[in-house]
Description:
The protein folds into five domains: about 25-55 and about 225-330, Immunoglobulins (Immunoglobulin-like); about 65-215, Jelly Rolls (Sandwich); about 350-610, Glycosidases (TIM Barrel), CATH 3.20.20; about 625-710, Immunoglobulin-like (Sandwich), CATH 2.60.40; about 715-820, Immunoglobulin-like (Sandwich). Helix content is about 10%, strand content about 35%. It contains seven helices and 49 strands.
Amino acid sequence: MAPPETVPAEGVPGIEEGERRRVSRRALLQAALIGGAGIAALPLLALIGSITKTGPKPATVIYSLNSDWLFGGTYQPGAEAAAFDDAEFTTVTIPHSTAELSWHGWNPASWQQVSIYRRRFKGAPLLGTKTSKNRVFVDFDGVMVNCTVVCNDQVVATHQGGYLPFSAELTHTLTSGQNVLSVIVDARALPVPPISIGAGPASVDFMQPGGIYRDVSLRVVPQIFIADLFANPAQVLTAAPRVDVVCTIDAAVQQAGALATLTVELLEDGVNPIATKTLGLSLIEGAGTASLSLTNLGAVKLWSPDSPTLSTVQATLSVAGIGAHVKTRRIGFREATFQPDGFYLNGQRLQLFGLNRHQLYPYTGMAMPARVQRRDAEILRNEFNCNMVRCSHYPQSPHFLDACDELGLLVWEEAPGWDQVSTQQSWQNLVVQNVRDMVTRDRSRPSVIIWGTRLNETPDYPALWTATRQAAKQLDPSRPSSGAMDSRNLAQWDEDVFAFNDYSFSRTTGTSELFPPLPGLPYLITESVGVVEARPMHFTWTDPPALLAKQAALHAQTHNLARSDTRYSGLLAWAGFDYCSLRGGRPANVKWAGVADGFRIPKLGAAVYRAQVDPKTKPVIVPVFFWELGGVQPPGPQAMIASNCEQLDIFVDGGRVTTALPASGSPLYKNLPYPPFLVPLPVPARNAGHPPPDLHIVGYVAGQRVAEVRMSADPSRDHLVVTADDASIAADGSDATRIVFRGVDAYGNQRRVSTGTVTLTVAGPGVLVGDNPFEFGAYGGLGAVWVRSEAGQVGTITVTAIHPMLGQAQATVQSSRPDATTALI
């Protein structure tokens, strides 16, 4: 693969090799997508022949446009004009939220307005030459909620909805000198899915802070280019696997009779060709599709959660007199099917074990950069051992999905929606368009195994759900569709997989329950547990330890039930992380349903997830309690310890108190691969003149000591710790990493702290993103902020946290020069 093109240093944004963004152009709407080896119905492409010669592999040039935006706050008419005086605007970096937010107490009124962003850039390096002209697009990965894009006083695009990408062509509006790009953002609770007509921000169970909250880039392509590439592995379990490829080609000029070739390659590790096929094409102005299949692949490596092997499909369009253009897609060879007796991956039954995820964060809403978005996938897969995540209730960041592909985290992806449907045709048309855009964006991903084409927990609208299901099937015939139901009424269901949000719970026993699977149907539980079982309805760090431990027990019990019958494909519990919501009168406008909090710090509720991993990979011991003065909290005859060990030895103050085995015989936990331990712990007497005793837990596998945990009840040794997720971030003004500060005991275990604030200082080329001072005691003895780099500034960033009783601690992060492919304009 050729290296990225060299770009002049002055006035040019960053570049990266390959391209993943979808083009939205008027002519594309006329294109007819077809399968097999056919050609589009419109006369854009005429098949000339098929050869196997490998063509050139030029780089696509994409310029980062995330830095140096000017934010004007409330929009004033005329502020989009190129000549407008924006001297009073504030310089911001994308991703960006229009409102200043804390970790709690979000008020939609703070972003319920129309705002404006402006960006200047030079056009000379983008437009090409008189003999080799380029086309230039601005690509938005997501703007919340609606927006109008203006370039040099000309409206170039409008878009409705905040969760899917769109593009605007700038070619005919650019000058060789300075250009002004303006984006008018309407962040009000508009009648755009998921919000229905006449509804407000409290009508859905998540908030939607406004802004340009995902990446922006400039994309430079030839006059004729590949607008989209769909690569679909097929027959992967047979002796003749293949990759079916559909390329959508956009031609701004007529080129009939000119020599044009489309070369498609399957690259192992993104470099080494496995298979190549070339078509000869005849082009006219417009848009259309060309289809082919890559065959003779040999033995392919299968993609799975345990072995997420990725390959690259690269398409190169070469046109005489125009130039060449390349587009790539990463794929994985896997077969995923839902059957009445469960989910099968690559011919083997796999129990789906996962959580729901919202992409909401403290302080920034949804506006977090790639590293932070990817971190959620890493937590779910590597720390919580999930093999699946539900993207509730909208298409989520492409960076998050990139990480899912790489880590082997299966994905349920669904169109924006929650509980409501408008009868107005314009609103329903947006739902169908959202499905089309979602499928087009992510249909080549191996991680996505099912489309949510029916909006979450909505009433039956047969015509609408038929349209959304057909839209998904037309664009991607390889995956099933579904929609999460809150009713088991089969008369209102017509999907491939019956998906049910099951919050059953026994008030008598205080344990989880599940409805039995519906006979003869693929059956998946898409939500369970939540906070319905809690009184009060939340799991916060300041709640009694018994309530926090109850969350862990409920999640363990529900997954245990989902494993009791193979007709359950699996269970995706509610939820991975806390998030802000106006529904149900939650304290501080936060929904505390996560097994981790909004800062992504695991609660006791995450303990059983953390233990569901082979001890050969990682031996785990996670106490589901606090060890404090007076003994274990919550007190009781059986303390829960989540572990994948075969045996635990428990010591208090150096003396053995018990040897414990997993609760494999308990009907509440026996189906789990690694049931928790239920251990009677004594309440030790506190001897005068002696410090409170330590608790020591030692774990064994096959008779070998593999793990241990020590916990101190002595508060005099408590202290503050500060950790950073990453040792280094890129000095591009957008990259960021999380800084966590916690009160811990002498051995680093979480300590409940109910007083004081933490004051933070930052030294070096970084910007603090978060509350300072932080309400440490009010939150429960821990907290977090993020530190973001400053564009072009390299060096060491030091974050220092000070608590009046726990002392101070600090963490350092290196801000390093960005990779050449992310240089800034």
